[in-house]
From TrEMBL:
Residues 169-185 have a biased composition (Basic and acidic residues). Transmembrane segments: none annotated. Gene3D superfamilies: alpha/beta hydrolase. It comes from Thermoflexibacter ruber. The lineage of its organism: Bacteria, Pseudomonadati, Bacteroidota, Cytophagia, Cytophagales. This is Dipeptidyl aminopeptidase/acylaminoacyl peptidase. Residues 754-924 form the Peptidase S9 prolyl oligopeptidase catalytic domain. GO terms for molecular function: aminopeptidase activity; serine-type endopeptidase activity. Keywords: Aminopeptidase, Hydrolase, Protease, Signal.
Amino acid sequence: MKKLLFILLLLYCFAASAQQKGGKQTALVSTKKPLTHSVYDSWKEIGFRAVSNDGSWAVYTVNPQEGDGKVIFYNLKTNQIDSVQRASQVEISQDNQFVVFKIAPPLKIMKDLRRQKKKKEDLPRDTLGIYNLQTKQLAKVANLKSFKLPEKAGAWLAYQIEQIEKKETPKKDTAKEVKKEEAKKPAKPKKKESEENGYRLVMRKLANAKETTFDFVKEYKFDKFGKNLIFSTTGNDSTLLAGVYVYDLQSEKLKPLFRAKKGNFKNLAFDESGSQVAFVADLDTTKTQVRYFKLYHWKNGQDSALAIADTTNITKGLLVSEHYVPNFSQNGAKLFFGMANKPVVQDTTLLPEEIVNLDIWHWQDDYIQPQQGRRLEQDKKRSYLSVYHVDSKRIVQLATNEVPSISLANEGNANLALASSDVPYRRLTNWDISGFEDLYLLDLQTGNKKLIQQKIKGDAAISPQGNYVYWFSLPDTAWFTYSVKSGQIFKLNQGLKEKFADEEDDHPDYPLEYGFAGWTENDQTFLVYDRYDIWAFDPENRKAPVNLTQTGRKEKLVFRNIRLDQEEKFFKADQTLLLSVFDETTKQSGYYSLNLKDNSKQKLLMDNYRFSTFQTRKAKDASVLLFTRESFKDYPDLYATDLTFKNIKKISEANPQQKDYAWGSVEMYSWLSLDGIPLQGLLYKPENFDPKKQYPMMVYYYEKNSDNIHNHIVPAPIRSAINYTYFVSNGYLVFVPDVVYRIGYPGESAYNCIMPAVTSLIEKGFVNKERIGIQGHSWGGYQNAYLITKTNLFRAAEAGAPVSNMVSAYGGIRWESGYSRMFQYEKSQSRIGGTLWEKPLRFLENSPIFFADKVNTPLLMMHNDEDGAVPWYQGIEYFMALRRLGKPVWMLNYNKEAHGLTQRQNRKDFAIRMYQFFDYYLKDAPMPEWMKKGVPMLEKGVNKGLTLMNEEKE
């Protein structure tokens, strides 16, 4: 017996060793479990991540997909870890001493109370958490409404709490006496905290927890450097009148800036130094529908704030906007505020049956009615930027209805700005979505505008110091600058063979630019991207352009700057940049450094992972970085290092349970399209893949995905597309091919790319040709609907939100944005390349509905009744055609959902139904009840129909 146990132990160790080392496959069966739908909620993600200014602490949140998460404090010097449950809205104090956050009530308790039909006011409130990084002590404050820390200081915390009144019942022996007293003299109602009246504001000195309280505060705000705090209050009827106050954090004294018996004070603002304040106020106590706000200004030395703008001294017919938050220029010399049109108000004497609700579509409207509807709230709050010159006390309106957009320079310090207008060209956006605009140079002293360029196609901006206006002209595929000083226009990439717009773009429109990194100090140099490299352009072409990264195109390395300092306005001439790098050939990625002084670059890290770019964090005052790396098998956990990347330390383990589940692998696959174009795709294989076996295979695609080979895909309910990991864990192959397009033939292009890829995989011998499914959503959904009219290769297909009839869809509306759908077909993703009357046959030939009689593939569709991208009648048209033809077809409509699912219960439900559908056709699993018999409307919301037909109902 002992000998037998010894042999079994040896076999177990051998198997474990082979598995750890990634060695050759053994005959031993893996003990790992396949993923199930029950694992979703517990799978975690790292959300917030930050590093303290001194580089000592990493702070991050780890949250399950549904449930209670936590914030983790990781000491990067000692490796000590602490955590607090259910934390969110995390902030680290600027002095590296404290972490402040909101603590939510336990999710289970909240759900249980909601099931008991508890009122909102009776549910538990959030709690404020204050964690001391030095002592590891946690302080809590109940009933939190909000909190704020100074942007550039660490000594103070401000927070608001809601006082919960206890409901007390008078005792029997005193109840009569209380009623008698109340009857003698009516008591004045006690003022209660509310959104209208405000809540209690507490100022807390973090070092010693000393607190100062103010009642009924509506708004509050620190100045940038934490010297003062401003707040507005409705008053406490005794010691504090309604108004606006400044609390001096150094002297800990309160100064009133403006007081009144009643009023609405809002949009509080400091200048950068904390020596000036602005706000708007309405002192009218009547219930008039039109509110006449005034702009108030205060600066050190004044006794109180003064009204500086109202209807008496601004543009006739306009009001001071209550929706625009005033802001100062960085040097405090200018105060920017908004003017607004007088609102159109309803006649309140009319009865509902006397009001005519009518939309009038006019052929010369700037925006069609649906667009106007989507923009309604924005238009109601529209402001025209204006400036108050503090020293001269002059007001200048900058933006107008004709020229509405203003871009300030040098943080508002410059006396010139860029003004732009798309007004003359708005009608064109119905069929030319990229649009046009006119550019002007605007004088902030006078409001005068000078035309720079008309009808440009491409976004324009102004350089940090305001010396140049710059834009990429899409028709010219070129960068241009306008010199403010000389008034000249320069084409920067004139004569260069390298392209600065998408070289692989296959839309019937101008390709988009690759973008830019930024400007160097004093607007000396403009750093721009081509497909691979970073170029330095002299904005006036006095010097030849310089390729800073030099070898990108030759080695097919894509270099891009990582912005480590979000406050950085420009690069210093000798600055060293951290670059992200992606190898188009090997799909490796990593980091390089680039020194702008001598253009020297250094490889820091390259590997078979995807490394973070936007999620990379640097300590402000130390050479400490937080970054992530991921692969299909590796969750993007956090790693800490310095700017050399020589010493890398893993500091998180979000999903240790992954090791217990069968996961699989991914590899690159190459083939030629039917047009002879070399293409790539991703082939995901089950764990312990055996090339001698045959597997069912799922095909999913959406344009190009091969560069995403190292993306990690956590098990999760699906929004619209299959979860590769789930399918692979359950014994499927998943193939994700790249698709390229020929203008005018999108459906045929998909066929020419996908079919040879799938058939070549079948020839490898490990794909069961009788068990291939295909899934796609939106653009992929359309192509699936098209493909099954041309081939019977697929045993089953799912098409989410498909356009089935390009003729009817062309004249429709994208209800989410209000845009006409015309642009989609003429110049955008559908790639028809012309109007319906110019190219009618292309619209017909690419519309699956006209070939519905050729479909022999069972089809599942999801198309929701509030889809704002593809109108759901497109799914209905295809469903009704296939239904009449007697083809097996199902359509899922999740009520009140849009283009992709957002509600978690619906995402879980869709995941189960999609997998049931494909398991039935590709694995001969039992058919679920909803596929066999449907679910009658009478049983909606009660019977899901998920029971498999060979199982008894619960």
